[in-house]
Give the backbone structure.
Amino acid sequence: QVQVVESGGGLVQPGGSLRLSCAASGITFSLNTMGWYRQAPGKERELVALITSGGSANYADSVKGRFTISSGSAKNTVVLQLNNLKPEDTAVYYCKGTWSWATAWGQGIQVTVSS
């Protein structure tokens, strides 16, 4: 089976930056996609960024130009660079991995943007 673990969240001021990492472990063959989602209080969970096994990336309009998703240096890892953060980016961020045989979610990590 697969485990997905996020790291790198925290509290930052508006305009600041964070780097979120996601690592999948266990049986990780046949990876299709890895992506980041977020859910703010009172709002629906939304896709933030997604990267395919072929390396193509997709972004939500709200983060395009500010966030960057990329493959990590280690196998089965993905990094989300969050720049120019805004208070409305405050949410719990979840990493999701999709394989041909399974889907796995991380536990979620808090990102808070506040003065």
User: Anything to note?
Assistant: The radius of gyration is 13 Å.
